[in-house]
Amino acid sequence: MGGAKKPTTANKDKTPKDSKKSKKEKGEGGPRKAEITVMVNEKQGLKIIENSKVITVQDLARQTGVKISAANAFLIESTKKGVVKRVGGYSGHHLYQSVSS
Asked: Which CATH number fits domain 42-98: 3.30.70.260, 1.10.760.10, 1.10.10.10, 1.10.275.10?
């Protein structure tokens, strides 16, 4: 049970080396791309949070034009600083509110 399959007559003629390409043919050997770090502008992020009653990570990401991970990192850091507090939500979809409101 579960042994190797018999090669078909069409596959008998092919060798495994024919189907594989070298690294140069695939294009993997070139220089690496630079990492780009995008962060939320602190003034812009806090202004958006203060102008809204509550905000989610997805809302902040859309309004600032950054990825959700960058917006999430900004909100977590702001929560640690005490500028923003988490007021509700569930399972990673949290609601945040400005402390001054």
From this structure: 1.10.10.10
